[in-house]
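Run log, item B.
One chain of 188 residues. Sequence copied directly from the ordering sheet:
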Amino acid sequence: MNYFQFPISFGSILVHWSSQGLLSQVEWSQHPFASCQNKVKLPQCLQSIVDQITVFFYRGQPIVQIPWSQIDQSGWSEFQKEVYLWTSRVPHGETRTYGWLAAQVGKKSAFRAVGQALRKNPLPILIPCHRILSVTSMGGFMGVIDPLQPELQLKWRLLQLEEEYRSPFFPFMASSILEMRQRQVDSV
């Protein structure tokens, strides 16, 4: 398996690809460049993905489009493919619940199965499973449910990063933003 590691605003990302040049995994580490040397050059077709992930972490800018044709999906079940496709449709800066996602894939009561599929998501960030929450909590992220662990702290930071990009805060606009949000709440 080939890999390429690069720094981000809080840690580093390691991308893996198959011998066919298809993206197979994205891993996050809280440590910048965790003892890994890039021995293989990143395929040109994956450079755009790395660039988008980098800009996402530094500016919160949305990942424009998931390049499904450049992703190795050979190890995914049909259920996982559906879950990942619907997860990718949750807009930048918004969240949904495991139950909502289960309903979208046609299995309303399968919210736990959805959680397990997301736990196995090999491409967190690119397939934005951080946008899927429990009804009562943040839910899990990258196989972790303890809110004190770095993975769930990353989930919280990703949601904050997206919200800041979507709704940048300018002090001179504070009263206007609060008034607008109050009108939205009142109209519901």
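Observations after the first pass:
- Residues 171-175 have pLDDT under 50 and may be disordered.
- The longest strand covers residues 2-8.
Flagged for discussion on Thursday.
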